[in-house]
Design a protein that fits this description.
This protein is mostly helical and 262 residues long. It has 12 helices and no strands. It is globular, with a radius of gyration of 18 Å.
Amino acid sequence: MDAAQAIILGIVQGLTEFLPISSSAHLVLTETLLGLKMPGVSFEVWLHFGTLVAVLIYFRAELLAIARAVLRPSSGEASDRTLFWSLVIGTLPAVLVGFTLKSAIEAAFASPRFAAAMLLVTGIILLLSALARNRNRPVSILRGLLIGMAQAIAILPGISRSGSTISMGLFLGMEPSAAAQFSFLLSIPAIGGAFVLDMASAGGQFLPAGSVGIYLLGAAVSFLFGLISIHYLLKIMRKGKFFIFGLYCLAVGAVALVLLGR
């Protein structure tokens, strides 16, 4: 892998991790259609690490407020404590699915056609989100669990994590920006947990000799474009145009299926 390939994959990961268009599908399809080869799972893990740092920095104020509410209940807001427990409960479904269906999920990632087909499913979900009505419902333990179940399904390549979780929040009557923020915060344990587990399974080969620069370049590009995608998705949510990503997913999924069928 050279620097140009690392930059391309970093851009793809950074933009698609938070935009509701499935980063997993785009990475699989980009590698397949352009003939890019990643040197093992660890490079993809570092791309995810870049987007993890992006969301930590972007929502640093919210994370500090949550930490303060949990560690010092007398000085923190009750809503922040509710948010914390909603994130904890919302993380559990993905953990359960990830451990129990690990082999099936790995097999799905080996199929570009499956990823393309699931992009069509994501497109339909996003278009249907336009029917949701904003009832300004706050985050709750139950809503956190339901959104977490949507995140668990999004472990499959092609099912957008942000798309499914934000859509579920909208279907549950949450305000669009609040649904998006909860989705981004929910990504922290998901991405962070995957990073730790994959690094542990790598047997200490976090940065293979001779590839340190390439790995860090990919992570840095992923971080930068992750910040950009978070910023612009929140703007799009405020404008009520979230559903337009559904058209993109349908188009890309259909084109990919045609190209992969040749």
